[in-house]
Amino acid sequence: MRADARRNYDKLLDVADDAFDEYGADASLEEIARRAGVSIATLYRHFPERQNLLEAVFLRIADSLRDEAVTLLEAADPFEAFIAWLHSHLESGACGRGLAASVMSAKLQEGTDVNTSCHQMKQAGAELLARAQAAGQVRQGIDLGDLLLVVHGIVLVNEQVPTTADRPQRMLAVVVDGLRC
């Protein structure tokens, strides 16, 4: 990809990420292109369908969570590292209302980039969980997949009902208290 095309691509992803945070997964593509300083044709050249843009934004989030988990494996306190990652998961899930639901079929379809990225992210998170369990800080028998569904449930509930900015964190705190040994 040419350097200018790469800049446009990255700018579109940055702007789309912000727009999905602000307006949800149905944010105007024309507005995204305008804010990115490119034509709608440029947006469609990079992302022929809305779904392509949604998945590209989601991939950046999942890859970021994977990278954060890998970094947190070096943290001194395994419990705090795992909980920090769960909080990041909550915050990233709260971004882009409807984004996770919009890419659900790609997440479940073997061989897609989204499925592969989610699998890698979960593997890294599972290592964080195993480390905290080995240190005796998190109860045994906790399934990461179940825990991530609870975190996603917190996100979905707070998308649907009037809430305060701190409610998702308070809800996660209840979950975290249940993880401790």
What does this structure look like?
The protein has 181 residues and is mostly helical. It folds into 2 domains: 48 residues, Homeodomain-like (Arc Repressor Mutant, subunit A, Orthogonal Bundle); 129 residues, Orthogonal Bundle (Tetracycline Repressor, domain 2), CATH 1.10.357.10. Helix content is 76%, strand content 0%. It is built from 10 helices and no strands. Helix 4 runs parallel beside helix 8, helix 5 runs antiparallel to helix 8 and helix 5 runs parallel beside helix 9.
Distance between the termini: 50 Å
Number of domains: 2
- Might you state the CATH topology name of the largest domain? Tetracycline Repressor, domain 2
Let me know the CATH homologous superfamily of the largest domain: Tetracycline Repressor, domain 2
Question: What is the fold's blueprint, element by element?
Answer:
Blueprint: H1 3-23, H2 29-36, H3 40-46, H4 50-72, H5 78-94, H6 99-102, H7 104-108, H8 113-134, H9 144-160, H10 167-179
Helix pairs in contact: 1-2, 1-4, 4-5, 4-8, 5-8, 5-9, 5-10, 9-10
Which features does this protein show?
181 residues, mainly alpha, Arc Repressor Mutant, subunit A, Tetracycline Repressor, domain 2, 2 domains
Brief rundown of the structure:
By secondary structure, the protein is mostly helical. The protein has ten helices and no strands. Helix 4 packs parallel to helix 8 (113-134) and helix 9 (144-160) packs antiparallel against helix 10 (167-179).
